[in-house]
Amino acid sequence: MRITLAAVCVVAACGGGGEDWTKKPTETVSGKVDGVAFTIEVPKGMRQKAEADELRFDFLVDDRVFTPDIVIREGAFAKTLDDYVKGEPKVASWIRKESLADGYVVSYENPNYKGKEDYLVYATKTVGDKVLTCSGRVTRWSKDDKVKDKVPALEKVCLSIKPAAG
User: Fold this and answer.
1) Domain of 159?
2) CB–CB of 106/94 below 8 Å?
3) Close Cβ partners of 5 (under 8 Å, ≥ 6 residues apart)
4) CATH code of the domain in which 124 resides
């Protein structure tokens, strides 16, 4: 998953993205991954792309892709928080690592881009008898962005996954 996560997360351009995405209102979006229907709260204006086994969200501004880059899949890299932490030995400092009633969430500076304002979030949520994962990456939109301050907003998006009604 570590290699997949790095490949899945698009490297966003660093500048000129426009309005701060954390200040945008959110909207409820429905999705389906491997037969699991769910809803998620994302900032308005995010582009949604369904692929074979995943659903992706990002911002497209003036023909450039900007983070956050969010990928929803069925199945987890690690069943437990402890297993996830053990599977990421390059992470020196965790922003958050928390077990939840219906999964877990971790966030940390991307160990492949230390000091570059590049952060990752990984959350699991149980939806019925399946587990959905939300992998997110957030990078700078402008030269002066303090991205670490945006990590809680990305965690909130990932943790907003709920089973679809019906």
Assistant:
1) 2-163
2) yes
3) 77, 120, 122, 135
4) 3.40.1000.10
Q: Which residues contact 126 (CB under 8 A, 6 or more apart)?
A: 102, 103, 132
Dihedrals phi, psi of 163, to nearest 5 degrees: -60, 140
Residue with tokens 């809680």: 152
Per-residue pLDDT of 101-143, as tens digits, reads: 999 999 999 999 998 999 999 999 988 888 999 999 999 877 8
- Cα-atom radius of gyration of the chain, to the nearest Å? 15
**Which positions ≥6 away from 120 have C-beta within 8 Å?**
5, 9, 107, 108, 109, 110, 135, 136, 137
Give 121 or 60, the one with higher predicted confidence: 121
Whole-model pTM: value is 0.85
Q: How many domains, the chain?
A: 1
Rounded distance between C-alpha atoms, residue 38 and residue 151, angstroms: 22
> Which DSSP string corresponds to 28-83?
EEEEEETTEEEEEEEETT-EEEEETTEEEEEEEETTEEEEEEEEEEES-S-SSHHH
